[in-house]
Amino acid sequence: MTAPVESSAASPARNREWKRPRRECALEVVDSLLRTPGAVTGEEADLLLDLRSLLCRRVEAATAIRIFCDLRRRLERSQYLAFFRLRIWLERHLQAEVRLCPAAESVTVEVKLQFYCPEAIRRA
User: Fold this and answer.
1) Contact 15, 21 (CB under 8 A)
2) Beta bridge partners of 96
3) Does residue 73 carry a pLDDT above 90?
4) Fewest CB atoms within 10 Å of the CB: 14, 53, 72, 111?
């Protein structure tokens, strides 16, 4: 799908939507990290459980991206393959509805998680 390029000054309210029902791959990655002894700290386990809950319920995609980015900054060096799989899965299953102004019609675009900060992702 080709979407018009938007400026970085686009409306701050982007509604991220889930686009496909299959969640198993992402859940398997999260579950694997949780059951591997010493892979994560207690705080990281809490964040992984929060992310898992959001993925299961398919709600609050913006919150899921924020948690993913936080976990990615913390764990990607030691768990690169797991976060590569999560990033690719999220990119394939998230879309954003964007508007250049409140009166404009929304355009659906793919979400690319090339940055480690949710704000940078929002502006991309």
Assistant:
1) no
2) 16, 109
3) no
4) 53
User: pLDDT-derived band of residue 34, with 50, 70 and 90 as boundaries?
Assistant: very high
Q: Rounded to an integer, what distance in angstroms lies between the CA atom of residue 122 and that of residue 13?
A: 9
Give the C-alpha separation, 94 to 96, whole Å.
7
Residues 6 or more apart in contact with residue 64 via CB below 8 angstroms: 51, 54, 55, 90
**Cα–Cα distance for residue pair 61/97, rounded to 1 Å:** 12
CB 47 within 8 A of CB 70: yes
To the nearest 5 percent, what fractions of the chain are helix, strand and coil?
50, 10, 40
How far apart are the C-alpha atoms of 57 and 124, rounded to whole Å? 26
| Listed residue (51, 44, 46, 110) closest to 77, CA to CA | 44
Return the structure tokens found at 107: 């355009």
Examine the pLDDT at 52 and tell me if it is beyond 80: yes
- Ramachandran quadrant class, 18 (left: phi over 0; alpha: psi -120 to 50; beta: rest): beta
